[in-house]
Structures are given as C-alpha cells and as structure tokens.
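Q: For a teaching handout, I want to show students what a protein-ligand complex looks like in token form. Below are the inputs, and the small molecule is BIS(adenosine)-5'-pentaphosphate. Please produce the holo structure.
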Amino acid sequence: MGKRVVVVGVPGVGKTTVVGEAVRLLRGAGREAEVAVFGTFMLEEASKMGVGHRDDMRRLPIEAQRELQSRAAKMIARIPAEVVFVDTHAFIRTPSGLWPGLPRHVLEELQPHLFVVVEAAPDEILSRRSRDAGRRRDPIDARGVEEELSMTRAFIAAASVLTGAPTLTVMNREGRAGEAAQRIVEAIGGL
Ligand code: AP5
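A: Here is the structure, written as tokens, with BIS(adenosine)-5'-pentaphosphate included.
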C-alpha cells in the first residue's frame, strides 16, 4: 500500500504550493506521487447541489458538509500511488464554530501515515491571502491568524493520537517553499 500524507494549514499558508514542490522533488527522484485536494473533491460533489464556489461550502449546514466530506474521503482513499498527498484542513471555520476536517470517519477512510502542518509567519499568511484575488476569505487580522495556527496544532494533535501517525511541522518561508518541501520528502523517507 502507498503512503498517505495528510497536509494541513490555515487558508493561504501555501500548502498547495509546498505540496506541488514535494511532488516535483519525488517525481524527479523517480517516485510516483499524486495530490488530492480535498476541497476540490468536495466541490465536485457540491456543484451537483448548486454550490458554485469552494468558499461557499463552509457555509452549508454541517449535515450537508459532513456528507460531502465523507464522499470526498472515500474517493481519495481509492487513489493508487506510491505517495498520495491529501491537501486539506485540520478544521473549517463554519457559522456554527470550528468544525473538524479530519474527524474519525475521515481518518478511518484515509488511514494516514504522516500528518504535515504547514505554517508561516502571520503577516506572510495575510499577504498571501490578499494576493489570492479569486477567493472569498473571511476578514481576519494577524491575531486571528495566530489563533488559527494554534487551533490547527490542537486539532492535528488529536488526529495524530487517534491514528498513531506522526506529525511534522514545516515553515513555508517567503520565497522558500522548496525548503519546506525538501523536509517533507525527508520525512516520507523515514516512514
Ligand atoms: P482549500 O481548497 O484547501 O482552500 P484554502 O485553504 O483556501 O487553500 P488555498 O489553496 O487557497 O491555500 P493554500 O494554503 O493551499 O495556499 P496556496 O499554495 O494556494 O479548501 C477549500 C474548502 O474546502 C474549505 O474551506 C472547506 O470548505 C473545504 N474542505 C477542505 N478540506 C476539508 C475537509 N477535510 N473537511 C471538510 N471540508 C473541507 O498559496 C497561497 C498564495 O501564496 C499563492 O499566491 C502562492 O503563490 C503564495 N505562496 C505560497 N507559498 C509561498 C512562499 N513560500 N513564498 C511566497 N509566496 C508563496
């Protein structure tokens, strides 16, 4: 069975960029690596319910989000590759509060081998969010981002204990996504 690496981070921290670099490094070394963006799998299903934008999914009733989440996890679990990166979230900010992106039913489907938490300085995260013009982000300041970083650590600690998979934290420094990716590739080598 391939290795499933679940990558989380607050919106705009650059996890998609870092994962892309890690895939490039692995493929360059002759290894088979794929990326599953959890939100994209959910959006494919959500679009059948008339949801047109990925940032509208977190405002659906929790029951509807849970159904989409469950379908996405089942589809992602079937992806065959030596290394599958799952680009997702430790929690989602919903009108009803912070809701887990990796509850037990999702973890049972995904059976992760490694969790990666991508972090960056709060001001860099805010600046990356402001550059993503196509997104409908919640208005938030640097203190709010710090709280999100801290809650990400808390939610991932729970997932790590539930599954027994280790957690690696990487810093995605400005202009240096490749360094974070390199650290992830090293960690995969030790699984
Ligand atoms: P998702 O699609 O994951 O959206 P997101 O978190 O907003 O992710 P982004 O892709 O926008 O940010 P990113 O951190 O990957 O940053 P990026 O690399 O693009 O989730 C969408 C929705 O799906 C969620 O809201 C939720 O509703 C749902 N969902 C997902 N998982 C779920 C789950 N498990 N359960 C339930 N619902 C779930 O980079 C951002 C910018 O920064 C870019 O411009 C990039 O070029 C730049 N950048 C990145 N790194 C660097 C660097 N080192 N230096 C300079 N610039 C950089």
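A: Two things your students might notice: The CA atoms of residues 68 and 190 lie 33 Å apart. The longest helix spans residues 142-163.
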